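Notebook, student rotation project (T.W.).
Task set for the rotation: take a protein with a known small-molecule partner, predict the structure of the complex, and write up what can be learned from the model alone. Partner molecule chosen: zinc ion. Sequence and SMILES entered below by T.W., checked by me.
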Amino acid sequence: MNRNLVLIFTLILITSFGCFHAVQKKLELPGQDRIVLDQLVIHTDFALPRKHRLLGELTGLRKNIANQLDLPTSDEPINIYLFENADSYHQYMAIHHPHFPNRRAFFLKSDTTLEVYAYWGERIAEDLRHEVSHGYLHAVVPNLPIWFDEGLAEYFEVPIGFHGRSQPHIELLAKLLKTGQWKPDLARLEDLRYADEMSQVDYAESWLWIHYLLENGKGMRAFVVDQVHQLRENGEAKSLSGTLVENGITSQNAIEHLQHIGNNQ
Ligand SMILES: [Zn+2]
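Predicted structure of the complex:
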């Protein structure tokens, strides 16, 4: 074999191994670095400062949720697999969880594990606050109804100090209400069983009910606390919509709350 041919062959081999290695790497979970913060175990393949303020927010969220809902904290690890970018995250998810809808982040729970998958992008802070909230909640409360679970996660994904106020949800619901395309119906939300049944409007309405009960200043936090305590003790809870109706709280109250917070920006 002449010398040039050998060189080309060697280069092809090196290139092939290089590509093979790169593809293999993208299909694995991040795991070169590990940061442990209370319950959180964060796995990354990139340099994430150990005192990054987002990590401080996530550990603070644990106490915030426990305080707001009168819940104990758990020491069960929540493993967060934090991909460096959207490409590596989507490639991993396409191979390992091909049936999952195309989303920026996921929370996964099994009998023995609590896991979050996400990537470092523009909305990573809100994504992690949301998914890690699921982790903190599921560590201490079993069988959370889907609307309740998502409503709480949407509330707690808002940075601390904003009282769970979500401007995008307010604007979406106000617009649909005005055009007669939506009105609150908690009993309908309670009938939803699976995450893929939840539309964007359902997420927003779930958030609205939680925000109304936790933030209207009329002592209704007790209804939410009672739900999580029933679930925690019995694995099931009485219908919250039924309890609210018994206490004279209807869809009209949720509408008035939406209008009130919409007017107080
Ligand atoms: Zn969620």
